[in-house]
Amino acid sequence: xxxxxxxxPDVYDRLYGEKDYEGEVDFVVERFxxxxxxxxxxxxxxxxxxxxxxxxxxxxxxxTGLDPNPAMLETASTRSDxxxxxxxxxxxxxxxxxxxxxxxxxxxxxLEPAExxxxxxxxxxxxxxxxxxxxxxxxxxxxSSPAIQLAGDQDPVARIFWYRRSGNTNVLMEAVIFHDDxxxxxxxxxxxxxVGVVAQYLRELxxxxxxxxxxxxxxxxxxxxxxxxxxxx
Length: 233
Known about the structure:
CATH architecture of the domain at 16-139 and 192-230: 3-Layer(aba) Sandwich
Distance between the termini: 47 Å
Largest sheet: 7 strands, mixed
Low-confidence stretches: none
Strand content: 25-35%
Number of helices: 6
Order of helices and strands: HHEHEHEEHEEEEEHEE
Oligomer: single chain
Structural class: alpha/beta
């Protein structure tokens, strides 16, 4: 079943419970403080179960979270007073403009190459003057055999997964996830994007670009990248 994990927000939270959500928010807020316009409207595209939103709210932002998965949004709505709505790239169908637009944790890798520049243009149209865009690109190396991930203490989850690459850019992640007394199959079609190509896309849209290894927090990916796009004064 494609992207079945997003129908199981409780399992998702157990699998990614050790992610440093607050540290990622700190990274983004620090970049915004140095490069942004000082506004307070933030849009999180692919907000998932809303783990980033409370930290942004605590730092003074009015947060809107977009996600295409109703089950994830239902959980997100219990975590903060942020505004949540169904939506996904390559479109951004939200009223108004935003000072900070953030697409976290490999959201951009779900886009087909033909959609990628359209997604950047949509974010640009929704960005306030002097705002910044932040997103990351994951790294998905070819795996010769499946790996296993164990997560959760009281309600453990086991995921057997592997990445298979096809050509230079196409990646298929396949997994079997065991939780409680049940299990399901989870598949994700991803695209691997070279850092230099993504940076060039952003420059062609008038942005200056800073590229970072990650959010200055831990990650299991070997060579991911975070892009911070802004208008240089």
